[in-house]
Each structure stands twice: as C-alpha cells, then as structure tokens.
Design brief:
Distance between the termini: 40 Å
Helix content: 25-40%
Radius of gyration: 19 Å
Structural class: alpha/beta
Strand content: 15-25%
Strand order of the largest sheet: 5-4-1-8-9-10-11-12-13
Number of strands: 13
Largest sheet: 9 strands, mixed
Length: 313
C-alpha cells in the first residue's frame, strides 16, 4: 500500500494580486481618483490561499502550479518558502498569473484577471502529477489552466478530488469540466439563478457526493445525500475589511473537517467560521485561521446538525 505523505495536493491558482482600494463598487467613471490607503501588490491567489488555509490548520499540504521566471514568480515562491509550504513550480510560458483586485470600503471586491498569462495548452509533466498524487490523500484542483487535463490522472491515482467553481453561472462549459469530475464541489451562489437546482444538477450528472454553494452573509447551502441544508453565517471576529479569499478559506476548513472524518454538515460550519475570519484580514496581507481559533469559533457558533437530522437545519 502506498504511504500517503501529503494530506492535500493543491493544483493551480498560484499568482499575484495588485490591490486597489476604490471609494465604491461599482466604480463610477472619473478621469482620475486619489486612492487611499494606496495600491499594493502581494502574492496570493486561490490556490495559494487554499494551501495557506490548509497549512494553518495543520494539514500536510503541497502546492503545484505553472509559474513564470519573473518577479511575480519570485513573490509566489517566497510566500510559500516563508510559510514552509512545499511548492513545485512548473515553467509557465506566459509568465506568472496576475490580477487586479478592486476593493470597496465594505470589503467587496472585483477581480480583473490577466487572461494572457495562462492557456489550456500550457504543458505540464504528467509523470510529476502522478507521482505527487500517489503520495496524497486528497487533491484540490483550482479552475486555472491547464489543470482540467490533470483530473483523469488524479482519478487514476485513486485520490479524492475537490474543486471550487467560484462565480460559475451553472452553464459555462469550462467550469463544468471541473464540476463533473470532482467528488466535492464548491461554488459561490452569486451568479446562480437557482443555487439548489445547480447543486442537484452537479451531483446528478457528475461524480460529486457533496456540493456546496457559499452565499456570503447568508452562510452556505450544502447538498449531501440528496438533502439540502442551510448553514447560517457566523459573525466575523473583527470588522470586515475584504471578502477576497473567503471562499478559499471556506474550502480549506471544510476539507480539514472532511479529512478528519467529520460529517459534511459540521464541515460546512467549519467553512463559515473560516470564511468569516478571512473577511477580517486586510487585502494587502495573507493570513488564515488556525486550528485552535477555528474549533473555538465552531464551539461558540454551536453544534451543526447531526447525521440523524437533529440540531441546526
């Protein structure tokens, strides 16, 4: 039997964000604006944040992605090195992924991604993916290119798979490729006209036995074994400053619970507690909730519904 040396292998989503604080969203046209507290660039996109969240909760985490031989790539490598998170960088022909995040006073944000930095034809070493997957308990696949091509390899390796579709509309074919090949599917409800219908469609047509739609200050909706459960949001432990990374924090905490044998309803409670914490971290910083604070927050929020249906619904 292969000894699993890594709890979660994270594929994709390594990059750099430039944070721009704006007076409001949507941003009204003006010839120029004076921005305070200023503009700052830092390493950290979806895969980085999931890796950080898992690592902070004590899970053995390895992050794999295409990365450029450029300044942004150095920032990503430094982030992982400083935090002690193993990172394997595959040369990226187009350079390291980058984005601009417009952040409003209420913490909401709008992300503008540089689409020229990644392509679905970018090459990666299949043997490397197989080797890393063979030593992992679980793989979380970010919806960045070219990692949809790795999904069959992960399946062959026998690891369970999760993915986050972010603001999927329930129809886009690119997102659907990930949705139908993962065992656990996360998504935001922000662009869904019928969140419950989308969750049920994903589980009916694909491999997923768990599907979750996060809903901001409404909490999250969990579909498991045909039953839809609403998990209410919890109050953030400090003022909300930025919603960026909240969904990644939710996914990391959910997976922490799942890999520890918790019922999916309790995992969803872990997720809303971690997501609320993430909203209190300034956009110019990278930070994640630790295990003790997570469990304390869960205890304070109250126990989630037990498998027999008791407790919260």
């Amino acid at each position: 039997m292969t000894r699993r040396q890594v709890d979660v292998l994270v594929l994709g989503g390594a990059g750099v964000d430039t944070i721009v604080h704006v007076p409001r969203l949507p941003l009204q046209y003006a010839d120029s604006l004076m921005i305070r507290p200023g503009i700052e660039t830092r390493a950290g996109q979806s895969g980085d944040f999931v890796s950080l969240g898992l690592h902070a909760l004590g899970l053995r985490t390895h992050h794999l992605d295409l990365i450029g031989d450029d300044h942004e790539g150095d920032m990503v490598r430094s982030l992982h090195g400083d935090l002690g998170i193993p990172f394997t960088g595959v040369p990226a022909p187009g350079g390291t992924k980058r984005a601009v995040n417009l952040v409003g006073p209420d913490g909401r944000r709008m992300s503008l991604y540089d689409a020229d930095r990644a392509r679905d034809t970018d090459p990666f070493d299949e043997a490397m993916v197989r080797g890393l997957a063979a030593g992992a308990r679980h793989a979380h696949v970010v919806i960045t290119q070219p990692w949809s091509s790795a999904l069959p390899l992960l399946r062959e390796a026998g690891v369970s798979i999760s993915t986050d579709l972010h603001d999927w509309d329930g129809n886009d074919a690119y997102h659907e490729t990930f949705a139908l090949q993962a065992d656990v599917v996360f998504m935001s409800s922000s662009a869904l006209s019928d969140p419950e219908g989308t969750l049920r469609d994903v589980t009916r047509r694909g491999r997923a036995h768990i599907a979750v739609a996060t809903a901001g200050d409404e909490g999250a909706y969990l579909l498991h074994e045909g039953e839809l459960t609403h998990v209410p949001a919890v109050p953030p432990p400090a003022p909300v400053v930025d919603s960026n990374g909240a969904g990644d924090a939710f996914a990391a905490a959910f997976l922490f619970g799942l890999l520890d044998g918790e019922h999916p309803r309790r995992c969803a409670l872990y997720g809303v507690v971690a997501g609320a914490y993430a909203c209190t971290v300034p956009s110019t910083r990278t930070g994640a909730i630790g295990r003790d604070d997570l469990l304390s927050g869960v205890a304070e929020a109250g126990s989630v519904a037990a498998p027999d249906g008791s407790g919260n619904g």
